[in-house]
Protein: glutathione transferase
Amino acid sequence: MSGKPRLTYLNGRGRMEAIRWLLAAAGVEFEEVFFDTEEQYEKLVKGGSLLFQQVPLVEIDGMKMVQTRAILSYIAGKYNLYGKDLKERALIDMYVEGIFDLLQMVLMFPFSPPEEKEKNLESMKEKATRRYFPVFEKALKQHGQDFLVGDKFSWADVQLMQGILEVEEKIPDVLSGFPQLQAFKTKMSNMPTIKKFLQPGSPRKPPADKHYVETVLKIFMK
Structure:
């Protein structure tokens, strides 16, 4: 096995996408192993690699890590994306948790019954434009830096960039009232590691399609 982190998950975004984003933003190459059947998943569980019988699974530095937040925290700390002190780390954690709350709505949207999709989309737009994005718009304006925390690029910036792009896929004009976030998106898009991740052929996964939804339901929603 190479020294690259090894990611095991379905061939789709899900809870692994934030991990792909963070590794890519840190300039870290990684390997991916995909499964798409219940049998393959059960083999992972029986093999003892999944501490709580759940994926994502990331093998890094001799560890078999599970639980998305734990994995992300480790990556952020390892690659110096977690602030310079405890106060900055706490701020990064708060921002990241807020973005995760918003991304949870995006994550679950493809699994909505057809009759609820319009209502859920409206709820996503309302939460994004009234609860979450105003926080980051204000933070960037008051902070006066290119980044959310301190004077350097952090996990919070990566997570916000992912959040912006994935909400925009569902609501293209969602940033229309947020000039600071529009400028932030432009700056982040031009950072070399993120620019590379946004190019076709990168490990970034497309939005969930019908096949991905069916695969998730078949494996996990028995």
Q: What stands out?
A: DSSP finds nine helices and four strands in the chain.
